[in-house]
Amino acid sequence: MSESAHFTFGNEAEIEDLGGGLKRQMLGYNHELMAVKIWFDEGITAYTHSHRHSQVTYVVEGEFHFMIAGVTKVLKAGDSCYIPPHAEHGATSPTGGILIDTFSPAREDFLEE
User: Fold this and answer.
1) Distance CA 33, CA 11 (A)
2) Please, is 8 exposed, middle or buried when counting C-beta atoms within 10 Å of its C-beta (0-12, 13-18, 19+)?
3) Does the reported pTM lie above 0.90?
């Protein structure tokens, strides 16, 4: 796996439209760590899934209803959550908002062409 540039400028880095009201911007990564910015449109639900990576998510703006391992909590700007490897999780944003997701190790699937 390659690594990102040492500096990422938000106004220059590509924002990928994932469809369904979600967008993603890579912030930085190597094989051990990855940070990603995610935009949710109002009312969007990210599908429930799991993966082998540890994840910490920080809410930049908006309101999110996070489900982790069957427990749902409401998170707002300034809140965060830890998602252990293989835990089922998903999120809904009734207001729309922005998240910063960090993964260890990096999500290789985010880098595939």
Assistant:
1) 22
2) middle
3) yes
Q: How far apart are CA 58 and CA 87, in angstroms?
A: 17
Mean pLDDT of 48-76: 98
pLDDT in tens, 6-47: 999 999 999 999 999 999 999 999 999 999 999 999 999 988
CA distances in angstroms from 88 to 13, 44, 54, 57, 105, listed in the order given: 30, 18, 12, 15, 17
Task: Kindly give, in sequence order, each residue whose CB lies less than 8 Å from that of residue 99, ignoring residues fewer than 6 positions away.
Answer: 37, 38, 40, 57, 58, 59, 60, 64, 91
Q: Do 16 and 69 touch, CB atoms closer than 8 A?
A: no
Q: Give, rounded to a whole angstrom, the gap between the first and last alpha carbons of the chain.
A: 13
